[in-house]
Design brief:
The complex is a heterodimer.
Chain A lengths: L11 E4 L3 H12 L4 E4 L7 H5 L5 E2 L8 E2 H12 L5 E3 L4 E7 L2 E6 L4 E4 L1 E4 L5 E4 L15 E2 L12 E5 L3 H10 L5 E6 L8 H12 L4 E4 L2 E7 L2 E7 L2 E4 L2 E4 L3 E4 L10 E2 L2 E3 L12 E3 L4 E2 L7 H19 L14 H6 L4
Parallel strand pairs in A: 1-2, 1-9, 2-5, 9-22, 11-18, 12-13, 12-18, 13-14, 21-23
Antiparallel strand pairs in A: 3-4, 6-7, 7-8, 10-19, 15-16, 16-17, 20-21
Helix pairs in contact in A: 1-3, 1-6, 4-5
Chain B lengths: L1 E5 L5 E5 L6 H7 L18 E4 L1 H4 L7 H9 L7 E3 L12 E5 L6
Parallel strand pairs in B: 1-5
Antiparallel strand pairs in B: 1-2, 3-4, 3-5
Classes of the chains: A alpha/beta, B alpha+beta.
Chain lengths: 339, 105
């Protein structure tokens, strides 16, 4: 066993904090297994929260209708007694075996160890979509960015932000106080963002603290990866940093390099334990594949329950697994804080 | 009712269509290479298709959200549409679409 990382050692590490990853915390918690969750998004809920928070879902048992955000909120309430630890805004980069444990490392340098890994990563990692601007690759990571990792890299810069959603507006509001000049560009004066953010942005524009340009971006000018201007149909916008928020798309990402057996970009599992080709590594929800698999949230919940049984056997090899119902077991009710 | 779908490798498929279904759902149901990651919410552009020009006038015009998403897709043309926004009906029987490269899973 590893002593040095004991503070980052837990029973189960769940990759993905979507509905299925969240419900896995509940099923594991009933068996006294502690969980950490890692997600690339800055919030929990996965696709439900990112792609369709307001969209009604009609096939969650006992909810004739529930939105993606409400489902997420209810799951968070349901797993609260089990006190999961969240590591948000981080992408898992590597999975390695170290002694009796699995070791996960994220792109933020976080290292977590556990005997059981559960991959509940849905359609994969949410990654920024590239704007359709010819030649933009040469500037990426130098003066053009699709996400903000450190705000300091924009201090005293002349910044152009493109986009009309929450990411564009949130970063415009957060970065405005530290940049030298800020221009927000969007195609139309129509925003898909929190009304309060839109109001605050317009106040800053009215006060002359930032510029708003309603225009179509058609190109980029610069040299050696250093942007000099963003080109629009209304003229050039001089700048030395360009942040583009064109939405997110899902890619399998580093999970593809974990050495697990794959089936067309999905992870192959058995249908008894939902274990992958590596012992102690499980896959549940949309990312797993087996004959007859349906990509439904409710299928993921079932997979989480069965996975938890085997996770217990791996984490507590000396203990007997007892199957109990929450309706009658005072032991479970105590764990849930209702007894 | 039929849909003619030509996949990214140029292969032609004749698909049995059902009234009221989104074309994206029919293409996906046949297992053709279409990502459709948002599942028909009109928020991702990964069900992007090119509609054969003679069928364009029969379609309900795109809403502003669909227009925005198509403007941001890397391979948009004049006859681009999101196939999740096309509902199958009798007057679209035989419609021909080509799956865009950006719709590949």
């Amino acid at each position: 066993m590893m002593e040095s990382n004991s503070q980052n050692q837990t029973d189960v590490i769940i990759v993905g904090a979507g509905p299925v990853g969240l419900f896995a915390v509940f099923e594991l918690g009933l068996l006294d297994l502690k969980a950490h969750l890692i997600d690339i998004l800055p919030k929990v809920g996965g696709q439900c929260a990112e792609l369709y928070p307001e969209k009604p879902i009609y096939d969650i048992p006992a909810y004739p209708v529930i939105t993606g955000q409400d489902l997420t909120d209810r799951l968070m309430e349901q797993i609260k007694p089990f006190g999961p630890t969240f590591h948000l805004n981080q992408m898992v980069e590597t999975l390695e075996r170290e002694g009796d444990l699995w070791k996960l490392t994220t792109d933020m340098g976080q290292v977590l160890c556990a005997p059981v890994i559960v991959i509940a990563a849905g359609g994969g990692s949410f990654m920024p979509k590239k704007p359709p601007i010819a030649g933009i690759e040469a500037y990426e990571g130098k003066s053009v960015f699709y996400a903000v990792r450190r705000m300091e890299q924009f201090r005293d810069r002349s910044l152009v932000i493109a986009g009309g959603g929450d990411s564009a507006l949130d970063w415009a509001l957060n970065l405005q106080p530290i940049v030298q000049k800020l221009t927000l560009v969007h195609r139309r004066d129509d925003w898909r963002a929190a009304p309060d953010s839109v109001r605050r942005m317009k106040e800053l524009v009215a006060a002359g603290k930032m510029d708003l340009q309603i225009a179509n971006i058609t190109g980029i000018k610069g040299e050696n990866g250093q942007v000099e201007a963003v080109v629009t149909d209304k003229g050039d916008l001089p700048c030395d940093r360009f942040l583009a928020f064109y939405g997110l798309t899902m890619k399998l990402g580093p999970v593809a390099n974990f050495g697990l057996n794959l089936h067309e970009n999905l992870i192959s599992v058995d249908t008894e334990k939902f274990q992958t080709s590596a012992k102690g590594v499980f896959a549940i929800g949309d990312i797993c594949h087996y004959p007859g698999k349906l990509k439904l949230i409710l299928s993921g919940f079932h997979e989480a329950a069965l996975m938890s049984q085997e996770a217990f056997r791996i984490c507590r090899p000396d203990q007997k697994l007892r199957f109990q119902y929450t309706t009658s077991s005072s032991d479970l009710q105590k764990k849930l804080g209702v007894a | 009712m039929k849909i003619i779908a030509i996949d990214q490798s140029g292969q032609r498929h004749e698909l049995e269509a059902l009234e009221g279904w989104r074309i994206m759902e029919i293409i996906r149901d046949y297992g053709l290479p279409i990502k459709a990651e948002c599942g028909g919410c009109c928020c991702c552009a990964t069900c992007h298709v090119y509609v054969a020009p003679e069928w364009l006038s029969k379609l309900v015009p795109p809403n502003p959200e669909e227009e925005d998403l198509l403007l941001d897709a890397p391979d948009t043309k004049a006859n681009s549409r999101l196939s999740c926004q096309i509902l199958m009906s009798a007057e679209l029987d035989g419609i021909e679409v080509v799956l865009a490269e950006s719709a590949k899973p």
